[in-house]
Amino acid sequence: MDKRIEKYWADKYPDLFKWWFKSPREMPMGRGFECANGWFEVMDPLWSKLAEFKGLEIHQCKAKFGLLTIYTNRPSSKSKRIGTLIHAAYRQSAKTCEMCSKSGERRSGNWITVLCDDCAALKDRWVKSEEYGTEIAKKLGLRTTCKTKDDHFHTFVFESCYICGAKYNPKSGEWTEVE
């Protein structure tokens, strides 16, 4: 998932995604959303509904066997409404291309994923996901460039700016701009 979109959600729903800002050693959510950008339309409405539940935390969000899988601090067996919402997103992911959000189907290969015919035919389908992520970021009004070093953003795992791609050196604390 495009890190700009992840940060958008983490900022918009800080209680739901409090673990996104933490180390992945503490919680898997620290690695971010482990799926492609095509599921944005599946997840975005889900987060606004789940944010209504006080104390709910997303501990992990990933593609598993080609389907959107979400782990929370509340077992769905104990919270029927939360489980129903998450399961609806799970079912929707089964027919939504993970790369571009068109209608798709589960396909196997090296990795099971849901793809439309167009993305399945691509040699490097991740390029399509990146393009779609940039399209979503622009639609949300998110920055795609940084003007000063204070504009850069990264977390524990990634040593480059989510917004512009500048490289971060943790030893010196300096940024190297990408040209």
Q: Overall 3D geometry? A: globular
Low-pLDDT sequence parts: none
What is the CA-based Rg, rounded?
17 Å
User: In total, how many domains does the architecture comprise?
Assistant: 2
Structural class: alpha+beta
Along the chain, the helix and strand elements come as: HHEEHEEHHEE
Count of distinct strands: 6
**What is the beta-strand fraction?**
5-15%
Major sheet details: 2 strands, antiparallel
Task: Give the averaged pLDDT, no decimals.
Answer: 90
Q: Helical element count?
A: 5
Write the layout of secondary structure elements.
Blueprint: H1 3-12, H2 40-50, E1 58-64, E2 67-72, H3 80-93, E3 105-107, E4 113-115, H4 117-121, H5 125-139, E5 167-169, E6 174-176
Antiparallel strand pairs: 1-2, 3-4, 5-6
Helix pairs in contact: 2-3
What this model shows, in words?
There is one protein chain. By secondary structure, the chain is an alpha+beta fold. The protein folds into two domains: 3-142, no CATH class; 145-179, no CATH class. Helices cover 31% and strands 14% of the residues. The protein is built from five helices and six strands, in the order ααββαββααββ. A two-stranded antiparallel ribbon has the order 1-2. It has a two-stranded antiparallel ribbon with strand order 3-4. A hairpin with a 2-residue loop joins strand 1 and strand 2. Helix 2 (40-50) packs antiparallel against helix 3 (80-93). The longest helix is centred in the C-terminal third of the chain and has 15 residues, at 125-139.
